[in-house]
Amino acid sequence: MSNIRKVLTVAGSDSSGGAGLEADLKTFQEYGTFGFCSITSIVTMDPDNHWHHEVQPIDSELVLKQIKTVMAGGKLDAMKTGMLGSVEIIEMLSKVIDEHDITNIVIDPVMVCKGEDEVVQPENGQAIRELLLPRATITTPNLFEAGQLAGISKVRTIDDMKEAARRIYERGVKNVVIKGGKSLEAEKAVDLLYDGNEFTLYEANKLDTNHNHGAGCTFAAAIAAGLAKGMSVKDAVSKAKQFTTAAIQSGFAFNRFVGPVWHGAYNKAEGRIE
């Protein structure tokens, strides 16, 4: 086990377990990689107020101390970001990437919590565009986030996704994958990868379920773990698509507000006790 691959997630904590760094660490484990985390924010949900989300950022100095703890173990094989609690954290993280020569960087530009309509910390979007995308191996926005990064009001079709991907690529990121999901105006659930030269479509049947909490985090984490294990970007995205589709298919109801994906589905980890 001396050559086990190491992956860091720098993300917010979702105490309901479906998304955030909890989803990332579960995914890393299912891929056979060793997961580390640096918590950027703590997200709570109020069951007495329609599951309303509140985000409590962690001080950037404490986030940095967590990262230093991780880096004491040597070079990482990949890093994935999720919700980044402040512009200060984003600025700090960009410096850490340069100082430690981190590669295989997956930037998941989390802007909205599932079930919420308001953009989480909108000032972070510009900082992500300017400081993290040029350092990223791949970024994984959903349709809404792609529109925000690309400056397009609505991304609804595959042609919209292609235009958004082109614009995001111009920000300096090496690869863009836009998650279509069930909101896409298409018969299939389509994710689109753009490497600056060609578009690659990854298709799956749309699933009639609301048990998809954490699907985006899981997809991005799976790509990071795949890259850590030496996969090409195309292969990492392909397997992540399969992994996440299986997780959604086996999702379950947590409560009346939310249903998370089941991260053990791809490897057929049983959740039941006989």
Structural commentary:
With 274 residues, the protein is of the alpha/beta class. Helix content is 36%, strand content 20%. A hairpin with a 4-residue loop joins β8 and β9. The model has no long low-confidence stretch (mean pLDDT 92).
Strand order of the largest sheet: 3-2-1-4-5-6
Q: What's the tally of helices?
A: 8
What is the approximate shape? globular
Q: What percent of residues adopt helix (DSSP H or I)? A: 25-40%
Strand content: 15-25%
Multimerization state:
single chain
Order of helices and strands: EHEEHEHEHEHHEEEHH
Question: For the report, how would you describe the main beta sheet?
Answer: 6 strands, mixed
State the distance separating the first and last CA atoms.
Answer: 32 Å
Strands, total number: 9
Radius of gyration: 17 Å
EC number: 2.7.1.35
Family: Belongs to the ThiD family.
Pfam families: Phos_pyr_kin (PF08543)
Catalytic activity: pyridoxal + ATP = pyridoxal 5'-phosphate + ADP + H(+)
Topology summary:
Blueprint (H helix, E strand, L loop, with lengths): L5 E9 L5 H11 L3 E13 L5 E6 L2 H12 L6 E4 L5 H14 L4 E3 L15 H10 L5 E2 L3 H8 L7 H12 L6 E4 L8 E7 L4 E7 L9 H14 L4 H17 L25
Parallel strand pairs: 1-2, 1-4, 4-5, 5-6
Antiparallel strand pairs: 2-3, 7-8, 8-9
Helix pairs in contact: 1-7, 2-3, 3-4, 5-6, 7-8
